[in-house]
Design a protein that fits this description.
The complex is a heterodimer of chains A (507) and B (610).
Chain A (H helix, E strand, L loop, with lengths): L1 H24 L6 H24 L8 E9 L4 E7 L4 H20 L7 H20 L3 H22 L4 H29 L7 H10 L4 H18 L8 H8 L2 H26 L1 H27 L4 H21 L3 H32 L4 H4 L3 H4 L1 H14 L7 H13 L6 H29 L18 H19 L2 H15 L5
Antiparallel strand pairs in A: 1-2
Helix pairs in contact in A: 1-2, 1-4, 2-3, 2-4, 3-4, 3-10, 3-13, 3-19, 4-5, 4-10, 5-6, 5-10, 6-8, 6-9, 7-10, 8-10, 8-11, 9-12, 10-11, 10-12, 10-13, 11-12, 11-18, 12-13, 12-17, 12-18, 13-16, 13-17, 13-19, 13-20, 16-18, 17-18
Chain B lengths: L6 H16 L8 H23 L5 E10 L2 E9 L1 H24 L6 H20 L3 H19 L6 H32 L4 H9 L5 H18 L8 H4 L5 H10 L4 H8 L1 H4 L3 H23 L4 H21 L5 H29 L10 H4 L1 H15 L5 H15 L3 H26 L14 H16 L4 H8 L12 H22 L13 H7 L4 H43 L1 H6 L4 H21 L1
Antiparallel strand pairs in B: 1-2
Helix pairs in contact in B: 1-2, 1-4, 2-3, 3-4, 3-10, 3-15, 3-20, 4-5, 5-6, 5-10, 6-8, 8-11, 8-13, 10-14, 10-15, 13-14, 13-19, 14-15, 14-18, 14-19, 15-17, 15-18, 15-20, 15-21, 17-19, 17-20, 18-19, 18-22, 19-22
The chains are: A mainly alpha (507), B mainly alpha (610).
């Protein structure tokens, strides 16, 4: 069993990369080989992930499936990986969504095709994302973090829509800009730690025993804040997101919204809060204010969007606002809310981007006005699934989106931060945000799915949901329902680890 | 059986999934599954009520939904007499509506999904009723809201209908936000979100009056939205865009009563707070009268009934606001109202089915063509207007009398005036619809038995339910409430006189079927009523439109020009600084990466020098 325990995580992280290499080197005359390889390798990674669910000890708060091997000894960087209740849900989300993207890509590829390159990049992306969630060494974390940038850059830049170059460069430079400061923060942590270490666990331990001086903490927090905030993205660092999403191919958008954004939120929970607890207390109200602005601002911006994909992209800013509000409360409820919110948003918004991709494939436009409504008549199943997912995105109880949102608001009512009056005020604005959210979601459903089919489209032959789409979607649709009805599936994993992590913030 | 009460909501929930996935392939298109599930649920509900009536103790059981930090959220079942009685009412009206719909919705393009939503609604409503924790109640609460949205917008091909659906959802959601905060306040103060736990904590004096008042008022926000009380009542008349059986079930008998049920369920929280009770009573008083006046000027028969529903729900709220003695009359009215208002809607649906219009100006003389509809509608009207011995007389009279006895003289006076208006608008409705000669162009006929049978059943209940008022206290009282005042002959003579004078005035005004409706000849008052006190205009022009434009548009412009402008400005600025950086902007990513690492190395070097 010990062999499995030590190898499982490495397998889950690097199987996709191995698949990427294989796709790149195996010569294939037809397009089928790379698709099968992508399916097999992401499927194998998911299988490992599922097996881990059975081996995971849910009663323990510490890291499991750990490996700690020397790596770059000159700077004491180690290959230290492991997972706990905080990272496990996000890791599983990564493995699931990536596999479903491989399923979807088995039949549906964006122009200009070139499945080998596309799928290799997709698998490489998976390794980067999964690695980010399990890395327990700052340098390793940074390598995985940056590894994500490159495939996504090419996905947007090569397989994107008309304005792809601009969006790709913006995405790349903006996140790079953030991560430079993040890396500086990491290096500062190394320099200030005694003994010098990049090890996240060791740094957390040091923070509990002999934390950095307050001013040092504040400065380092500022650096890594920039890195994580751009990724989340937290208002006002969000403007790369709508552009990137609007231009990205379907699978790129699914992974971007579904997983990439979570890396930022995860970074706050895993690195910023436990290693820099005093700075976190100072920064918490600032983050909370920005997060709440994001909620209301994004909902208002959504009301003004004419492009369906851009609308959903903006909605991500709002949903991540709830996540960040939860984190900023520094409370166990808030961080549970944040992880739940991230998982739920990953599934729901990932699903929405799948649907928008399929809508675009059929209607050749994403402009709400040009879609013209009546989708429930023209393609009833697609219209129904879209409406269902959109309503889930609205935070309807009984569906996954509800718990992250409601727990986040609850945590703002009872924050661990000392600024209770501020947080309760923010809760009220967050509540107003939920009304606005319901407004733009229902209005979107009305304009896209309801009404009659426009005259120009009546005779247009349009297929309803295809088999491959069902295969990719059903697990997500089921997940939306199951997590909504049995929220314990997530909190049962996260709560112990979160409770330990937030102990330091209890007043 | 009472220990397995959770089966009652589970039945329609299972039916929902069966209909959703396989309904279209069934011989009855899914209706048979819904009806079967509701029939069994009704039988079980009756058994449960019987067990309760024969002295069973309250049942509470729950399981963990989630735990986050010290916050435990549970779900489960809590069954006492209030739950059991609501069960019977919800199941009965659900079943009636489903049977009625087999005829009313026959041939509808989305017949199957309609039954799926009806079943989901019943499941959600029963979950709301059985909820053992506030969060579970919230889940049921919001799910009935989304079912209401889906069913109001059932004919979504027309934008008016989906507009009405959105309006209903957003308006109630506006109340649900304070409701949610109220749950937070109460949960944090009581240390649990379980309703029995909260009740016990309040009874033990564990929560200060200030906190109770705050949570009671916040929770009431949800009740204002759901039960369509002023100032959030505006959605209910528009909700009449949905199919009529939906109006009967959701927008008259059950869901809109959820706000009243909420206050009753948490009456332990309301009772100790004088401010909260005064607020509930005040909202009730305002709403009952303004809604009844609006019912006077409507031409759409369903809108008359919708405003009447708002007004009657306000009676219940006012009664609850009168204090522990007002609880039982409120519940009594809730149950009887469910019967006679569902009946009236079925009658209206029957008429609409026959003449293909909602407008009373195109009806008239239908009593000859539709005798069963006429007779049952008349019973419903008598019940609503408070004519003895029909159900509404006893229940409404009890509310009015309690106002006097508990010295809430303003509530009492408003309730009496409203009773007059109620009798007046119902007389107007009956005369315009059933008397005189037919003014439309269809060929009216009596409705099929699937529609008339529920009407007959409910007519019987509306006629006799009033005599069973004594059971209401025995069955549904909770520890926080007091026994109602005994029946006072003097007071009831007064309210009967008021009701009859309303009918008389209505008769005098409408017996000659005037060309121009006298209600529209009241000058500025008519203008005010026809324009619904301009509330819709205020909301639309003062809130909704400005948010859509210019606020949302401006935010988006701000985002593009200022925030993103700054980002692009930095990019362009750096590019123009020198050729070196222009070289970077070539888009060559490897080069960026090289620069990144060089830059980091330099900075790292500097840091280590510190």
């Amino acid at each position: 069993m010990s062999g499995w325990d030590t190898w499982a995580l490495t397998l889950a992280v690097f199987l996709p990369a191995a698949g990427a290499v294989l796709i790149a080197v195996v010569p294939s005359k037809d397009d089928r080989t790379p698709r099968v390889l992508a399916l097999v390798f992401s499927g194998a990674a998911l299988a490992v992930g599922i097996a881990m669910l059975f081996g995971f000890d849910y009663g323990a708060a510490g890291f499991q499936f750990t490996v700690n091997a020397s790596w770059i000894s000159a700077i004491h960087a180690t290959y230290h990986i492991g997972t706990d209740g905080i990272s496990l849900p996000l890791l599983e989300l990564t493995l699931l969504l990536s596999f479903l993207c491989a399923v979807y890509s088995y039949r549906i590829l964006p122009s200009p095709g070139r499945p080998r390159a596309f799928l290799a990049l997709m698998l490489l992306l998976e390794t980067g994302m999964a690695g980010t969630f399990v890395a327990l060494d700052l340098i390793l974390f940074f390598v995985f973090w940056e590894l994500v940038l490159v495939p996504m850059y090419f996905m947007i830049g090569v397989w994107g829509s008309s304005n792809r170059q601009y969006a790709a460069i913006k995405f790349f430079l903006y996140t790079l800009f953030g991560s430079v400061f993040m890396l500086l923060g990491f290096i500062a942590m190394y320099v200030k730690s005694l003994p010098h270490t990049f090890d996240i666990v060791a740094l957390q331990h040091q923070a509990a025993v002999a934390p950095f001086a307050r001013n040092v903490q504040l400065l380092i927090f500022a650096g890594i804040f920039l890195g994580f905030a751009v990724k989340v993205p937290l208002w006002p660092f969000h403007t790369w997101l709508p552009d990137a999403h609007t231009e990205a191919p379907t699978v790129g958008s699914v992974l971007l919204a579904g997983i990439l954004l979570k890396m930022g939120g995860y970074g706050f929970i895993r690195i910023a809060l436990p290693i820099l607890p005093d700075a976190a207390k100072v920064w918490a109200p600032i983050i909370a204010i920005l997060a709440t602005i994001a909620i209301v601002y994004a909902a208002l911006a959504c009301l003004a969007q004419s492009d369906l994909k851009r609308l959903i992209a903006f909605s991500s800013v709002g949903h991540m606002g709830f996540v960040m509000l939860g984190i900023a409360t520094l409370s166990a409820v808030g961080i549970n809310a944040a992880i739940f919110g991230m998982v739920a948003h990953g599934i729901i918004t990932g699903m929405l981007f799948f649907e928008i991709g399929s809508i675009y494939d059929r209607y050749h436009t994403r402009q709400i006005a040009e879609l013209g409504g009546g989708m429930l008549l023209k393609v009833p199943l697609l219209g129904f699934v879209f409406a269902f997912t959109a309503i889930a995105s609205m935070g309807l109880p009984g569906l996954a989106g509800f718990w992250g949102e409601v727990l986040s608001l609850f945590s703002a009512y009872a924050p661990a931060s000392e600024h209770i009056a501020l947080f309760r005020t923010l809760m009220v604005f967050g509540g107003i945000g939920t009304i606005l959210t319901a407004g733009y979601i229902l209005w979107t459903i009305q304009r896209v799915a309801m009404g009659t089919v426009p005259q120009a489209r009546v005779d247009e032959p349009v297929a309803d949901v295809t088999r491959i789409e069902w295969l990719a979607w059903v697990p997500m649709l089921a997940g939306i329902l199951i997590l909504g009805l049995i929220p314990r599936l997530v909190t049962g994993v996260t709560n112990d680890a979160v409770t330990v992590l937030t102990r330091v913030f209890i007043r | 059986m009472i220990r397995y009460a959770w089966i009652v909501p589970a039945l329609p929930a299972v039916a929902f999934f069966l209909i959703l996935f396989w309904g279209k392939r069934m011989p009855g298109k899914g209706a048979e599954v819904g009806i079967a599930a509701m029939t069994i649920a009704l039988v079980l509900a009756c058994v449960i009520l019987g067990q309760w009536a024969s002295g069973h103790a309250p049942v509470h059981g729950s399981f963990l939904l989630l735990q986050a930090g010290s916050l435990r959220i549970e779900a489960g079942q809590y069954i006492d007499g209030l739950t059991a009685a609501m069960f019977v009412v919800v199941c009965l009206v659900s079943l009636c509506s489903q049977v009625y719909s087999t005829a009313y919705m026959k041939g509808d393009r989305r017949y199957t999904i309609y039954y799926a939503w009806l079943s989901l609604f019943s499941a959600a409503m029963l979950t709301l009723v059985i909820a053992s924790s506030l969060f579970e109640l919230l889940i049921g609460w919001e799910l009935v809201g989304i079912c209401s949205y889906l069913l109001i917008g059932h004919w979504w091909e027309e934008k008016e209908n989906s507009d009405a659906a959105i309006k209903a959802f957003i308006t109630t959601k506006t109340g649900d936000v304070p409701f949610l905060f109220g749950i937070f306040v109460l949960t944090l103060a009581a240390g649990t979100s379980n309703i029995p736990g909260i009740t016990a904590r309040v009874a033990a004096g564990g929560i200060g009056t200030g906190v109770l008042t705050a949570s009671a008022l916040l929770l009431f926000g949800g009740a204002i939205g759901k039960s369509a009380q002023f100032p959030l009542h505006v959605w209910l008349p528009d909700a009449m865009a949905g199919p009529t059986p939906v109006s009967a079930l959701i927008h008259a008998a059950t869901m809109v009563a959820a706000g009243v049920y909420l206050v009753a369920r948490l009456y332990a929280v309301y009772a100790p707070s004088g401010h909260a009770l005064a607020f509930v009573g005040g909202i009730g008083a305002i709403t009952m009268l303004i809604a009844a006046l609006l019912a006077l000027v409507q031409d759409d028969i369903k809108r008359v009934l919708a405003y009447s529903t708002v007004s009657q729900l306000a009676y219940m709220m006012a009664s609850l606001g009168m204090g522990p003695k007002g609880y039982t009359p409120a519940m009594f009215l809730l149950f009887t109202h469910a019967f006679f208002k569902a009946l009236l809607f079925y009658g209206a649906g029957s008429v609409i089915h026959a003449v293909h219009t909602n407008n009373m100006s195109e009806m008239g003389g239908l009593r000859k063509h539709m005798p069963v509809t006429f007779a049952t509608f008349l019973i419903g009207t008598a019940a609503l207007a408070g004519v003895p011995p029909f159900a509404g007389f006893f229940s409404k009279d009890e509310v009015i009398a309690t106002g006097f006895e508990t010295h809430h003289y303003i509530l009492w006076a408003v309730a009496l005036v409203t009773a007059f208006v109620t009798a007046l608008y119902m007389t107007r409705t009956v005369i315009l619809t059933f008397f005189g000669s037919y003014r439309g162009e269809a060929h009216p006929h009596e409705s099929p038995r699937a529609m008339t049978s529920p009407m007959i059943l409910l007519a019987i209940l509306s006629a006799v339910a009033g005599f069973f008022g004594f059971l209401v206290f025995d069955w549904t009282h909770i520890p926080a409430v007091l026994e109602p005042e005994p029946f006072q002959v003097g007071l009831s003579i007064l309210s009967v006189a008021v009701a009859f004078s309303g009918i008389l005035v209505g008769y005098l005004l409408y017996r000659t079927y005037p060309e121009r409706d006298p209600m529209l000849r009241m000058g500025p008052l008519s203008t005010l009523l026809v324009n619904k006190y301009y509330l819709d205009d205020i909301y639309t022009k003062g809130v909704v439109r400005p948010i859509q434009y210019p606020v949302a548009r401006d935010v988006n412009d701000f985002d593009r020009t200022v925030i993103d402008g700054a980002v692009n400005g930095v990019g362009v600025g750096t590019r123009d600084v020198g050729g070196f950086l222009r070289y970077i902007q070539s888009g060559n990513v490897q080069r960026y990466a090289v620069f990144l690492f060089v830059g980091v190395a330099v900075l790292a070097f500097l840091i280590t020098r510190f």
